[in-house]
Design brief:
The complex is a heterodimer of chains A (about 170) and B (about 850). With about 170 residues, chain A is of the alpha+beta class. Chain A has helices at about 1-15, 70-75, 145-150, 165-170, and strands at about 15-25, 25-30, 35-40, 55-60, 65-70, 85-95, 95-100, 105-110, 115-120, 130-135, 140-145. In chain A, strands 8-1-2-11-10-9 form a 6-stranded mixed beta sheet. The model of chain A is unreliable at about 1-10 and about 165-170 (pLDDT under 50). Chain B folds into 6 domains: about 5-145, Four Helix Bundle (Hemerythrin (Met), subunit A); about 155-280, Alpha-Beta Plaits; about 290-430, Alpha-Beta Plaits (2-Layer Sandwich), CATH 3.30.70.1110; about 480-530, Helix Hairpins, CATH 1.10.287; about 535-715, Histidine kinase-like ATPase, C-terminal domain (Heat Shock Protein 90), CATH 3.30.565.10; about 720-850, CheA-289, Domain 4 (OB fold (Dihydrolipoamide Acetyltransferase, E2P), Beta Barrel). Classes of the chains: A alpha+beta (about 170), B alpha+beta (about 850). The interface of A and B includes residues 49, 57 and 62 of A.
């Protein structure tokens, strides 16, 4: 433990990336902290008619009306009942603020740049255009999402397309 | 020196100038004999040139300079304003407009047009019909270097000799002294490396104007504007509102001002006889005392009047009135001086006609006075003591002195013999209040100008405000304004939350909350007013456009504009322009007949187009009307059927007034030939869409042979709407009141089922009935209805009854858009935040009803 802390300090001098990590269907994902405005508990969401399926509705964030997207629906995962752990991550994508509903937000992690790798080439169904990079922290694999693509395209995206086996991640 | 901060200012002002030029040109075209237009244009062109020169926009400077010279020749009568020349001027203004797009980097094309224009100007000069033009030019070129007197430089110790006052200035000086001011000479020296001397000089003038009355400058104001001075200049001023030290400090705060020196100015001969000493020492407290002003017998005491005021005075005297001069002195430490002044003026208004005030009304408004002011009143039967008592009843009035006002000599044409000499007729004609107005060249033409009319006088007032004497308006970036309005909106919402939380806690809190509530509401109303601008901004471009299109089409058109002061939301102004352009173009192109045809029908050769605006409740109504040939309903139907817009069966069902709506259908046009001006009828459906996008409506009516009329109804603002709040499936929706026809509760048996769905008979009209949720493609969950709350909404001809779970009530809602991420949702106009912080969607009835799923009852047309 002491060793790893020391290592972290060293890296601090070097480049470091901060991420907001969250859980979706037991997989760990993350988004670049620079894209994140804030993390909210679930509040009342006003449903929007005639919009895309995964658009859950709109919320009021200090007077601004902000659309909210259910990432479970976005990735075609069966819906579960939302609980106390559920969070809305407000991110900024192409100049617009959008809320993302996730199962839970785990932590803000700092990763040294050398433990972040480009997404492996299209292997076994993984869509590299949806993945910005893959981070490794100890034995955890964290998939950093490319939000622009995920939120702006209307095509159906399946969760399988985002997950990697450990092998794949290791190869890069 | 970075001039970019001035660029915006320059552009904004230049736009105003061009607008003035355009309207003057239009007037000139109509009345070529009216010299005032030329004078005004000359003045504006001159200012534009000066400004562009300061900014270093060479191309604009060059063009405006040539045009200015040309205008001067027109003005002095050396050239006559023929139609060609007016056209050339129009082109010149257009060119300037283009040059403003990138003033510092004109396009090659514009450069070319510029040299062509200069060539055209030259050709006009060389035309034999216009004699002696070359001479003028030479003369002018000579006069330029002579004009600026050598700068006073170090010799200013005896600056007095440079201040040669004309009569107008003498009067002004006398006034200032009478009001208790101190005369002095200010010598301002700019730093050697100052880059924008004219701007600095302007800033200096602004500071000085705030502190007193500027009597004169040396070199004269227009030389200062044009940087025809070295480093220093002197200003003769009567300080009224502060002392030398304060003024000096504020002047030294201006960038690039190196030195400020105050010199005494011997103005004894102008001071009121018995108070000279006092006046000179008069600082704050002595000033407002009556002695300073009161000298009723002094016949040299003249109030400077502009033409309008003179006119008013003349007519008031003709009715047999007598002049009174009221000197009002307010109490020391008075708050809200302007309000007191206003109350005084109102009281006096009831007792006679107010001719003028000193200082001017706008100065009174702006509190640019110490403690006392003068009001000149003409009244037929003034009960002096009563009026005095009434005035003294106004709070904070210390003292009221009433003097007879010697006015005879000012109304009569003959100059009074009294000393000092009254304004000589040449200068007196304009009684310009602003020194800058007295440009040397203008004075040259003054003789010709003769009795400058009211318009010129009004202009004088406008100029005064432009030059900063009275800043009635400020320019604010719209972004800042929007932010403010947004924040106020937030606060209003928050207030509701606070009110709900705090209610009933304690009496004291309730009282506070009540007050907060009131203030917030007032604040909201006040801030909403900031968004409002007069529709003039749109209308102003039409006279020019109508002229151009009329010429192009070979039709004689007269445009009549009324109600241009009607205000509406700024965001609507921009969107309004296109539809109106379409309508007016159409009116000229399709509506009006050409002159011959009109004559045949016994109409005036000139076709009329009326553009009118007025308020109607929370709406602005804009009417575009022409007296052309109108539309023939039968022809419309025929044409619509032929073009496949509607089927013959549908055509049969059309009622007359509906028929005209056909022109709004996609792909419909009544003229067979495609015209460059109005295209092919694509315009009209765009017009309708545009207007509806603004939550407005457009109606058309017509009489064959008499003309057509388009009536546009727009909400005053898009930011806040009145809405009926309804609940459906536990969510609250806002339905704009404008779109609601009525609310009814229906028994289940009132609703009938036909193949297409539910309908109900409402006042002999069969209307389709839908669940609101169903329209929004949400499930309908509520069951066991005892009665159906139905909101009957309408969009154009379409009427639908919407079943909601519950009608909650009416309220004003602030419209928010849904953010850029979501595509436009048909049927949703936006969202609003409710008092409890939740978001409620605003129903867009137009969009909702356009949706194919709404089947209209059998009797109506299927859209």
């Amino acid at each position: 433990m002491a060793r790893s802390e020391k290592k972290d300090e060293e890296k601090e001098v070097v480049e470091e990336v901060q991420l907001v990590a969250f859980i979706l269907e037991n997989e760990e994902f993350a988004v670049d902290i620079q894209q994140v405005r804030e993390v909210l508990k679930l509040s009342k969401i006003t449903p929007l008619p005639k919009s895309l399926d995964f658009v859950e509705g709109v919320i009021n964030l200090r007077g601004e009306v902000i659309p909210v997207i259910d990432l479970r629906k976005r990735f075609g995962i069966t819906e579960v009942k939302r609980d106390d752990e559920s969070r809305i991550i407000i991110v900024e994508v192409s100049g617009n603020e959008v809320g993302l509903i996730v199962d839970s937000v785990t932590e803000v992690i700092r990763l040294p740049e050398d433990s972040i790798h480009e997404a492996p080439g299209s292997v076994a169904g993984a869509r590299t255009d949806l993945i910005r990079a893959v981070g490794k922290k100890e034995d955890r694999l964290i998939i950093i999402l490319e939000l622009e693509k995920i939120l702006t395209s209307e095509e159906q995206i399946a969760l399988e397309e985002l997950t990697l086996s450990e092998d794949e991640a290791g190869t890069s | 020196m970075d001039s970019s901060e001035y660029k915006e200012l320059f552009l904004a002002e230049a736009q105003e100038y061009l607008q003035t030029l355009n309207s003057c040109l239009l007037n000139l075209e109509k009345n070529p004999e009216d010299a005032n237009n030329l004078t005004e244009m000359f003045r504006v062109m001159h200012s534009l040139k000066g400004m562009a020169g300061t900014m270093g926009y060479d191309q604009i400077t060059e063009v405006s300079h040539s045009l200015e010279n040309f205008l001067e020749e027109l003005k002095s009568g050396e050239l006559s304003p023929s139609a060609e020349k007016v056209d050339m001027l129009f082109d010149g203004v257009d060119l300037l407009q283009r040059l403003l797009v990138s003033p510092d980097d004109p396009s090659e094309e514009d450069k070319k047009s510029a040299s062509e224009l200069l060539e055209r100007i030259k050709n006009f000069r060389d035309t034999p019909a216009d004699k002696g033009t070359g001479e003028t030019k030479e003369k002018k070129e000579e006069s330029v270097p002579v004009a600026p007197p050598s700068p006073p430089g170090d010799k200013t110790a005896s600056g007095q000799e440079y201040l040669d006052l004309n009569e107008e200035e003498k009067q002004k000086l006398k006034y200032g002294l009478r009001m208790g001011g101190t005369s002095c000479i200010v010598n301002i020296t700019l730093r050697e490396d100052s880059l924008m001397k004219s701007v600095r000089a302007y800033m200096v003038m602004q500071v000085l104007e705030k502190n007193g009355d500027i009597i004169t400058t040396s070199p004269p104001m227009n030389d200062l504007e044009q940087e025809n001075f070295d480093r220093s200049f002197i200003v003769g001023i009567v300080l009224l509102y502060s002392d030398q030290e304060t003024v000096k400090n504020s002047l030294l705060n201006i960038a690039e001002v190196e030195k400020v020196e105050f010199l005494p100015w011997n103005t004894e001969e102008f001071a009121p006889a018995e108070t000279r000493k006092e006046v000179e020492q008069a600082e704050k407290e002595a000033a407002p005392s009556a002695e300073v002003v009161g000298d009723p017998g002094d016949s040299t005491f003249e109030l400077p009047l502009n033409e309008t005021e003179k006119e008013n005075l003349r007519s008031a005297l003709n009715k047999g009135g007598e002049g009174y001069l009221f000197q009002i002195t307010l109490k020391e430490g008075v708050m809200m001086k302007s309000v007191r002044a206003y109350m005084v003026l109102r009281e006096l208004e009831d007792n006679g006609e107010i001719i003028t005030t000193y200082p001017s009304m706008s100065d009174l408004d702006e509190e640019n006075f110490e403690l006392s002011f003068l009001v000149a009143v003409v009244s037929e039967s003034m009960a002096k003591e009563e009026v005095r008592n009434a005035l003294l009843n106004i709070t904070e009035i210390e003292k009221v002195d009433i003097f007879p006002w010697e006015i005879k000599e000012k109304t009569g044409p003959a100059p009074p013999p009294s000393e000092p000499a009254p304004p000589d007729t040449e200068d007196g004609a304009g009684v310009q209040e602003k020194p800058a107005e007295k440009e040397g060249k203008a004075a040259e033409a003054a003789g010709k100008k003769g009795n400058a009319d009211k318009a010129a006088a009004d202009k004088g007032v406008q100029d005064a405000s432009k030059s900063g004497v009275v800043e009635k308006t400020v320019r604010v970036e719209t972004v800042k304004l929007d932010e403010l309005i947004n924040l106020v909106g937030e606060m209003v919402i928050n207030r509701t939350q606070v009110l709900e939380l705090g209610k009933g806690q304690s009496e004291e809190l309730d009282r506070c909350l009540e007050q907060l509530d009131r203030i917030a509401t007032d604040l909201q109303n006040a801030s909403m007013k900031l968004r409002m601008v007069p529709i003039k901004q749109v209308f102003d471009r039409f006279p020019r456009m109508v002229r151009d299109i009329g010429k192009e089409k070979g039709k004689e058109v007269q445009l009549h504009i009324s109600g241009e002061d009607t205000e509406l939301d700024r965001s609507l102004i921009n969107q309004l322009s296109d539809p109106l352009v379409h309508l007016i173009r159409n009116a000229i192109d399709h509506g009006l007949e050409n002159a011959e045809e009109r004559e045949k029908q016994g109409k005036n050769r000139k076709g009329n187009i009326y553009l009118m605006a007025h308020h109607e409740g929370s709406h602005v109504v804009i009417t575009v009307e022409d007296d052309g040939k109108g539309m023939d309903p039968e022809k419309l139907k025929e044409s619509a059927v032929r073009k496949g817009v509607i089927t013959p069966e549908e055509a049969e069902k059309f009622r007359a007034e509906e028929t005209y709506n056909l022109i709004f259908y996609n792909g419909f046009s009544t003229t067979e030939t495609v015209s460059e001006v109005s295209g092919r009828g694509v315009g009209m459906d765009a017009v309708k869409n545009n207007i509806e996008a603004m939550q407005g409506s457009v109606e058309v009516s017509s009489e064959t042979g008499e003309g057509s009329r388009f009536v546009l109804r727009l909400p005053l603002t898009l930011a806040i709407i009145k809405a009926l709040m309804v609940k459906a499936d536990n969510h609250v929706y806002a339905i704009p009141i404008e779109t609601i026809r009525e609310n009814v509760y229906m028994e289940p048996e009132q609703i009938k089922t036909i193949q297409k769905g539910w309908v109900a008979n409402l006042r002999d009209e069969v209307i389709p009935i839908h669940f609101l949720n169903e329209m929004l493609e949400f499930p309908v969950t509520k069951e066991g209805w005892e009665e159906y709350p139905v909101v009957v909404v309408a969009s154009g001809e379409k009427v639908v009854g919407l079943i909601v779970d519950e009608m909650v009530g009416q309220q004003e809602v602030v419209i928010k858009n849904l953010g850029g991420y979501l595509r436009e949702l048909k049927g949703i106009a936006g969202a609003t935040v409710l008092g409890d912080g939740s978001v409620s969607l605003i129903i867009d009835v137009v969009g909702l009803l356009e949706d194919g799923r709404v089947e209209i009852g059998q009797d109506s047309i299927n859209y």
